[in-house]
Amino acid sequence: MARTAVFFHAHPDDEALLTAGTMAMLAAEGHRVVLVVATAGERGLADLPHGDELAEARTAELYESAAVLGVARVVLLGYGDSGLSESGGGGADRPENAFMDADIEEAAQRLATVLKEEQADLLTIYDPAGGYGHPDHVQVYRVGGRAAVIAGTPILLEATVNRDPLLRALRLAQRVHRFPPEFDMRSFELAYSPGDVITHRVNVRKYAKSKRASMSAHATQASGGGGERTLGVMLRVPGPLYRLVFGTEWYVRRDLPPGTRLKHPFDPAPGEPV
């Protein structure tokens, strides 16, 4: 039976990094996939362009990514990109309509309208930390959780990363590599989600090409701020290793008991035993 999944993200390219494989998989299985993005990412790091031109470029990249993944509908909520200052906030120069400052109830109603129109069976948001703490990501968690309640969306998944292997890799790297002085391991100890709370480990290796193409669509985000960025580094990973490293996507479903280990985002259906 075909169902509808709505993926809620903060900025263009977030879908490529966290949920692209799952989106491509569900679309290939015949489900309807809808992508909702809170901002146009106009304050993201990029060499060129900037401001409104960057917003236009990133919006075009978003639609290119969506087409690659088989997305049926893209919705932009129209909030301003809050940016990310060194202190973790949006900075004093953030726009008046910055998403991090949006009224949660008002923003949730906007998203709930989409959920109701689509009769969504599933909504993805982020974990409470917003992944790595970006204020717009934290707001996605707050707004999305409330919208699911308003719309009565039965399945709510938090897109995340298993931080346990990430921490192990970083600690190992510290033994052989000197990180810059500003590197703070403690920030990674609080980022994303520990493995024992993750309920869904979705194997998306079959859709690695689509995921990589989704990342490639976001060309403005491959570099910026004086150097290569995370997305650019990811795109340089060779194919076989890429499938291994990026072949799993992780989710947390809070209404399931601890220790649950599932492989598909629609499992289990509401009311069904785990």
TrEMBL record:
One Pfam family this chain carries? PIG-L
Enzyme Commission code? 3.5.1.-
Q: Which residues form the signal peptide?
A: none
Q: Which major enzyme category is it?
A: hydrolase
Q: Please report the organism this UniProt entry assigns to the protein.
A: Sphaerisporangium aureirubrum
Q: Which InterPro entries match?
A: GlcNAc_PI_deacetylase-related, LmbE-like_dom_sf
Gene3D superfamilies to which the protein is assigned, alphabetical: LmbE-like
What keywords are annotated for this sequence in UniProt?
Hydrolase, Zinc
What GO terms are given for molecular function? hydrolase activity
Q: What is this protein called?
A: PIG-L deacetylase family protein
Does Hydrolase show up as a keyword for this record? yes
